[in-house]
Amino acid sequence: MDLRLKDILSQRGITLKEFAQSSGISQSNLSNYLNGNISPTLDTLKKIATNLNIDIVELFKEKDEIEIYAKYNGVLYPINKYDILSLILQHK
């Protein structure tokens, strides 16, 4: 099972320690879930989803995003959908 928990926490700027404290799930168990060492129970998944205020299926959605980069002076810079949208709006 590939939980998107790590991505969700990262997007929200929440550390694993902070999430462990707020959710009541031990940091070691959360780490084991993320590393695929153990699978969370349905009750635990519900607890995670409730704490994040998301539907439980959000924990399992596959990433289907395309990553785009601009290279300048040998350095890659990530471009996100907001950068692209901004460029489009500037040229209308």
Key features?
92 residues, mainly alpha, two-stranded antiparallel sheet
How would you describe the overall organization of this protein?
By secondary structure, the chain is mainly α. 50% of the residues lie in helices and 11% in strands. The protein has a two-stranded antiparallel sheet with strand order 1-2. 5% of the residues are buried. The mean pLDDT is 86.
Could you list the spans in which at least 5 consecutive residues all have pLDDT below 50?
none
Largest sheet: number of strands, sense, barrel closure: 2 strands, antiparallel
Could you tell me how far the N terminus lies from the C terminus, measured between alpha carbons in angstroms? 44 Å
Spatial shape: elongated
What fraction of residues sit in β-strands?
Answer: 5-15%
- Topology order in helix (H) and strand (E) letters: HHHHEEH
Radius of gyration: 17 Å
Structural class: mainly alpha
| Number of contiguous helices | 5
Q: For the residues shown, what is the average pLDDT?
A: 86
Helix percent reads 40-55%
Count of β-strands: 2
Strand order, main sheet: write it out.
Answer: 1-2
How does the SSE layout of this entry go?
Blueprint: H1 5-12, H2 16-23, H3 27-35, H4 42-52, E1 68-72, E2 75-79, H5 81-90
Antiparallel strand pairs: 1-2
At a glance:
This protein is mainly α.
